[in-house]
């Protein structure tokens, strides 16, 4: 299999950590594919018509894209340890969706500040996206701490990758304010070997 990736992508980071946790890292060839909405990578669109990463090329089927699809496929391939069955499964999926919503908002703020010309940037838009991050973190703190402190699953990995990305690109905005329990949980989770191995490079 081939994984089209960038080491700064938080969605790719989710996949990389899942590969590590499920012992599949050696089964995947990494293909560097740094891309953006205004600077797509040549050839990636043939794998993913949306021209986004991650994308997972398989020898026995069409290329998979969207990190949640890829993660569920790889977890199923490894025996299904990180997406539990029963009632907890729906909690895991909701937690992953919350984390990805935080990521989506954080990425939009990044694009607004790094890619849009300064005279066309819209501060109210960025503030509205940041509001989603604040709301998401508050929900994690008030509703999901017992799940985050439970057995490892993909919801926890997704949350850690989301918070890591907010630190990476928007640390000055301080998502930790009012979220002490979540901040403490993240500090411990960030010490895991696969979290340390996937810290994005500066830039």
UniProtKB/TrEMBL annotation:
Superkingdom as given in the UniProt entry: Bacteria
Annotated coiled-coil segments of the chain: none
Domain (GST N-terminal): residue spans on this chain: 1-82
CDD domains, per database record: GST_C_6, GST_N_3
A Gene Ontology term for the protein's cellular component: cytoplasm
InterPro entries linked: Glutathione-S-Trfase_C_sf (IPR036282), Glutathione_S-Trfase_N (IPR004045), GST_Omega/HSP26 (IPR050983), Thioredoxin-like_sf (IPR036249)
Name of the featured protein: Putative GST-like protein YibF
């Amino acid at each position: 299999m081939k994984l089209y990736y960038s080491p700064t992508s938080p969605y790719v980071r989710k996949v990389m950590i899942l590969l590590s946790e499920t012992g599949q890292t050696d089964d995947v060839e990494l293909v560097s594919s740094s891309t953006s909405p205004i600077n797509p990578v040549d050839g990636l669109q043939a794998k993913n018509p949306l021209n986004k990463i991650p994308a997972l090329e398989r020898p026995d089927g069409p290329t998979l894209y969207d990190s949640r699809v890829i993660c569920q496929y790889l977890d199923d391939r490894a025996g299904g340890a990180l997406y539990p069955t029963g009632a907890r499964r729906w909690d895991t999926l909701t937690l992953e969706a919350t984390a990805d919503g935080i990521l989506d908002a954080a990425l939009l703020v990044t694009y607004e500040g790094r890619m849009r010309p300064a005279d066309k940037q819209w501060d109210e838009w960025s503030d509205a996206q940041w509001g989603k991050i604040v709301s998401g973190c508050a929900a994690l703190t008030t509703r999901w701490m017992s799940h985050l402190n439970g057995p490892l699953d993909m919801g926890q990995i997704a949350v850690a990758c989301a918070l890591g990305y907010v630190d990476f690109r928007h640390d000055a905005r301080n998502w930790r304010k009012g979220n002490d329990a979540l901040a403490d949980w993240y500090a411990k989770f960030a010490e895991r070997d696969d979290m340390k191995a996937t810290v994005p490079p500066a830039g």
